[in-house]
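User: What would this chain look like folded?
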Amino acid sequence: MIKADVSQTFTPDLARIVSANRRTDLVMAGIGISVLIVAMSLLAAVVIDLIVGGWPRLMNPDFYLNFPSRHPLQAGILSAWVGTILVMLVTACIAIPLGVGAGVYLEEYAARNWITDFIEINVSNLAGVPSIIYGLLALGLFIHGFGLGETILTAGLVLALLILPVIIVSTREAIRGIPLDLREAAYGLGADKWQTVRLYVLPAARAGILTGTIVGLARAIGEAAPVITIGALTFIAFLPAPPFQASPPFINFEWLESPFTIMPIQMFNWVSRPQAEFHINAAAAGVILMLMTLAMNGVAIWLRFHLRRQVR
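Assistant: Here's the prediction, encoded as structure tokens.
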């Protein structure tokens, strides 16, 4: 009898709450779809404009194999796309181990005190610092302090600093998402702290870590401000020394000390010129830069899908 009274009292209120929540969900879904349509329309407009504007140069094979030139029809992006790949290689080799290691330490090993809180707050804030600040830091520290010069190594270091907070934060979030039951099960089997992290936590979190890493690298590949600050060249008519050689020790590190240019710098140089033909080159270079970013993201998506299947 009491249950019936309670049900008769609360059923209308419950139905009203459910109805209100459904209306809120519909409104939020409509707003989200509208925002998504606007964003995708703007992105599609930019992509179509670049493809249409740069189509004559995109269909010319010499554009990919020529060095920059004072003559727009003879100018190419060979040194720019090679420099971009080498700089991103250095950036990934430095940022990924440091970022993942720092994230694992802060999440699994660091003591919970004011020092850890201070580090966490600063890491989160560094993710939003303008990229030009990192360029000024690299100019003072790596070039004037360590004497590394305006080289590929310096460019990789400054871009690694730029994306390091992103990788640390994403690593921590990925590790934090692993259920506590997994750790307790590992401890129950006799594993120590490092074995639990290395054999169970990191493999389960690697898909999330990979996603954050690719997001950071995608930001780095399009950055121009920090590499302009450290003195990236806008006209390079040669390529760095090859990383591999036929004679021992077979690996050559001279390319790390070579001057460099990258795709955003090459685009900035062409856009700043008054001739309309250079603007066509800049549009074509923009399309190539987007394709490089999409290729990198495609590899990440495939790896993430492959890793998730292994976890299951």
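The chain has a mean pLDDT of 85. If you want, I can go into more detail on any region.
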